[in-house]
Amino acid sequence: MNPEKIQFNNEKLKEAILFLLSQSPNNTIEGKKKLAKLLYFADFNSFEAFERPITGATYRALPMGPVPDELDRVIKELRKGPISISEKDIGLPNEMVVFALKTTKDNFIFKTLSKDDQRILRKVYADYGNLSGTDLEHITHTEAPYNAVTRGEYIPYELSFYRAKTKSELVGA
User: Fold this and answer.
1) Residue pair 112/11 in contact by the 8 Å Cβ criterion
2) Model pTM?
């Protein structure tokens, strides 16, 4: 697939975030770092499995791992509607941001996410949802896509093929 043909889809990024939140038993995700890494795994797993990312977000290799450039803007949009953001004191100079659904997950109809997208997001949450943002940071630091570029550069989706995961590892059984 030609990288120039990958289009970012704002609505799919919003729905991917809501879907990941809906997978959590308490409808929350603790930490922006964790959310960013879950989205990275979803997009790169989708690209490796189907040669198309879910959201088309542009991931940059930052010191704490891959982060989609569009994340802050989309979180700001979602904060006006279906999610709330609070801070949790974790005993550090900075507090952890907690993302939560304002309503029950049953109220969401995912219009832009395909069944394959939902399977991948469900699998990503099942595999990584119980890990911390720091745990996920360490995992992404071992991945070929992150290590193939200089810090601060964009990570091409095509680098997902160097992870060599099986389809069941990417999308589940």
Assistant:
1) yes
2) 0.92
Domain range annotation of the chain: 3-171
Q: Do residues 104 and 25 lie in contact, with contact meaning Cβ atoms separated by under 8 Å?
A: no
Token digits of residue 173: 């059984």
Task: Print burial letters for 93-121: b (CB count within 10 Å at least 16), e (below 16).
Answer: eeebbbbbbeeeeeeeebeebeeebbbbb
- pLDDT tens digits, residue range 25-65? 899 999 999 999 999 999 999 999 999 999 999 999 999 99
Reported in sequence order, the residue ranges of the chain that DSSP labels E, i.e. its strands, are 28-30, 59-62, 65-68, 83-88, 96-101
Q: Quick check: helix, strand or coil at residue 129?
A: coil
Distance CA 170, CA 151 (A): 25
Is the Cβ–Cβ distance between 63 and 151 less than 8 Å?
A: yes
